[in-house]
Structures are given as structure tokens and as C-alpha cells.
Amino acid sequence: METGIFAAFSKKVISTIIAVGSMFYSTIDGVTPTMNTPELQYKNDYVLVSTTIENCYTEELDQIFYSGNLIPIYFAVELYKDGRKDPDSTNTFYHALQYSPLGDDFTIYYSERNETISSLNLDQAKVLFPRVTNYRVTSSNNINDNINYYLKITAWLNKIRFEGMEEELNLLYYWNSIKPNNKSAPFTKSDFQI
Amino acid sequence: MRFRLPSFRTQIILLVVLLIVTSVLFFRDFFINSFQSFSETSETLSTNEKSRKLYEDYNLQLDQVNRDQFRKDIEEIMSTENQKAIARRVFINEIELYSKFVFFFLTIIVIILFLISFYFITRPLKRLQDATLQLAQGNFSVQIKESKFSPLNDLIISFNTMSQELESNRKKIIQAEKDAAWRDMARILAHEIKNPLTPIRLSLERLEMKYALKSKDLDAVFSNVTAIIHEEIDNLQTFASEFSKFAKLPEAVMKHYNVNKQIAEICTPYQTELKINLKLEEKLPLLFADKIQVKQVLENLIQNSINAAKDNFIIKINTDFTDSIINISIRDNGYGIDTKDINEIFKPYFTKSRGGTGLGLAIVKRIIESHGGSITVESQVDVGTTFNLSFPIVHKQEQ
After folding, report:
1. Contact A63 B93 (CB under 8 A)
2. Domain boundaries in chain A?
């Protein structure tokens, strides 16, 4: 009984030490990703946006990609009126990367256009995985006259569970807990009439 | 039976052993259980190669639907394998880092415990040091607070006992010295009073006898006797006056003044009868002292030298100074002082000269010491004597 109490006490103490220590230092050597400035296009009365994330891979992330687990990047595209704090609209979508151990290749699923690209090697997959291409944000009907708008795109990684681990691994640690984001140049409804 | 603490060295060893044992017990369960858990997990892992071979061997034997399901199952197994490899790597990284945290934490705890124990060990030592200093300064009543859990407590108890004994002995010595001083004084007083009484009594008896016989030289005898009685009464008055001076010196009036000038003024009247060489430092700082008392000192020492004068007698008076001291030396080439008497000359009532009270040099010493100075003497029989006086330099802003 005493050993049990002692073990529980020591576990509690060690957990506290680890929790406090983790506040200052992490096992994960992360990178600081950056979101490129979103590029806008106007096509068929729609605002389209394209961008990608730079500096978003580490050696450990590459190994995690090879695990065969589904690895998603989530995106949120927010439409703001200039000077407002709250967005007019928010759209979310994700890109999911999965490795095939038998085929030794990668597949990327783009939820925004329900499209899958297969048979990619790692280098190809790493280029295409964070890239957002011509995402349809909104139609001109939703844009008011004489008001400046801008877009803000944010990306993040979630926790995933690996076999053999007691707790989920927060992939965002590999991005130093940073959710990269960036704003587009401002635009108005008149830009659609070009 | 009194409980005795283990020795200081044993206490330190016990402390270190306690820390090690506690640390091992504390962290053993955590790490051992973690490694056991990890090993169990590792043993269940299969290999990707076996899965791949299994797929290659059997996938062509299956129809399309089953082949797709078979591939999915095999990939799931291989994925699980890969995930476990990642989990293992992450786990190892975490253990490495967490062990550093624990090591850092343990180091901090050990340092804190060491500092605490060091404080409790050194606190009695500091008290002992302070008390020893006070003891050296003459405070024999100093006592140290006991530290019952300190290995130095026995030393503290011994120190307290020692200081109590010293205080008790000091009181006994002071009392004994007082008793001896009173006895000496009573003896000297009796002696000094009896000395003039004898010639007075003899003179009176002679006068009575001459008067009874109606002697023709009665007038001459009367004159002689009254002269003797006057002389003896003068002696008694001188003695009483010197005794009074010694008993109570007037309060010093301290001020800065040029002691060179004072020496020159004192010597002027003597220089008509004897040779006095003055070698006075021109840059001598001002002396901070009672001018009248210092004059008394200088006159007393010069007179002392004159009392020991012989042929070709000469007195040399020098002044000089260091950073903190003004030195005055008075040297003569008189008869000198016997080696056995050197240590006695400053004691009250010690004298070798007829008619001397033995209080002069005692008064000199007392005046100089009351100014924070000191006096020493060097002497050689038939060569001469040198008195060296030292006074502290007191700057005006220090007053």
C-alpha cells in the first residue's frame, strides 16, 4: 500500500516536473511556417484565391508522412470588410496526405474540390500538399458596392493518434504551435468589371 | 540516557545517502514502468517486409474485390508498424528530455538542501566566531545560543562554560587586585605619614628636654625644631598633593596645537643650566591633546632626566611622525635605570630617589594612555635613558 502511495506521489511529482519543463523546452524541433500572400483572381463573377505555405516541413514530419496515417492540413478562408473585426464569411477545407506502404507513393485529397491526386513521390507531395489553387471564395453577388474587402487565409495542423502512443501527437508542435496566415490585397466590386 | 547526535561527517554522509535513495525510489517506478510498457509494445510489432511478402504471395490468387480489401488490410498493418516506429522514436526523445528535466530538478533540490543544511551547520560557527571576537575584546559574559540539532552544540556548550569560568576568574582577579592595591596604598600611606612623624617627635622631645633643663640654647633649638617641623609638614603636603593628582586627573580639554612650540617653551628655562638639544620635525602635524596635561608629562620626564644627571649631561628631544602617529623621544646620557627596575618605573609609588613620591611616571603613563597614546622606555646603566612617547594623529574632521 505504501509503495503504491509512493509510486503515485512520485508519478505526480514527475508529471509536474515534466509539465513545468515542457513550458520552457520541447522534444519537438519545429519550424516557423509562413503563408504566402494570397493571390486573387476574378473569373466568372467569382473571387478565386491561390497561395501556399512555405517552410512547413521538418525531417520528423517527413517520417510521419511515411507512417501511412492520414495527415491533414486545415485551411480557413475568411472574407473581411475593411475595418471590421469579424469576417463576413468563413470557409474551411482541408488537404489530406496519405502514404501507401505497398505502392510506396503518396496520395493527396483536396476537400475544397473533392479531388485526389495519386502516385506522388515525397518531393512532389510536399509541393502540392500545402498549395491552395484557385479556391472559389465568393461570388460578386455577395460583394457590396464601394466597400473594400480583403481575404485572410489561415492554416493549421491537428492532433493525430499513432498506434503505440498513449496520447495524441499534436502536429502543430512541428510548426512551433504557429498557425500561418496572411491577408490578400484589398479589393472592391469594381475589380470584377475589369 | 542522553541522546547523542552522530558526528558531523556522519551527518553529511547520511544526508547524501538519503538524497540518493530518495531519488532512486522516486524515479525508479516511473522509468521502469515506462520502459516495461514500451518493451511490451515493441514485442508485438510485426515487420513490414513480412506483410509485403504476404501481399505479393497472395494478391494474384484473389479476385478484384477481395484483392482490394486484402491490400487495404495489409496497408493498415504496415501503417500500424510505421506508426509504432514513430511512437517509439517520439517516446525515446521524450524520455531523453524528461530525464534532463528530472536531473535539473534533482540538482536544484540537492543544491537547495545543501544550502539549507550548510546554513544550519555554519550558523553556530558564525555565532562562535562572533562570540570569540567579543571574548577577545574582553566581554567575558558572552554566551552563545545553543543549537540542539547542530553537531557543534557540544562545542557551544564548552564555549559557554569556558566564558562563564573566565568571567568568574576575572572577577576574582579584579577583586584580588583591588585588595592588593588597597593593602599597598595603606602600607605606603602609613610609611609616608610615619616618616615625618619620627623627626617631628624626636625634635619635640629634644625641645621639651631643653625647656625642662632651661638650656641656654633653647632659642636656637626652638628655631631648629620649628624649621624641622615645617619641613616635614611641607613634605606631607607635597605627598598629599601628588596623591590627589594621581587619584583624579582633571578633565582633559582637547584641542589641536603645535607641540614643537610647546617643547621649545618648556625647555627655555632649563637651557640656562643644562644642555638640551632639540631636533623637531618642521612638518609635524598638530597634536590633538590637553596642552596642560602634555606639559605636565614633558616637564615630569625632563625633571626625571635631570635627577639622573652626571658629568657632561645632555638631553636630546626629537619629534617625528608617521601616517597615524606623532612620536616624541626624550633621551639623556644620565645614570640609566637598572634592567630589573625597567618594568616597575610606571607603577605607582615606585621610586629610587630620596624624596620622590613614586607617582610622577605613573601619572605620566596615565595621561598619555588617556590620550590614546603609549609610552615606552629604553635604558642602559651609565649610558642613559630614552622615553618614547606616541600620540595618535587626529585630523580636524575626525574630531
Report:
1. no
2. 2-193
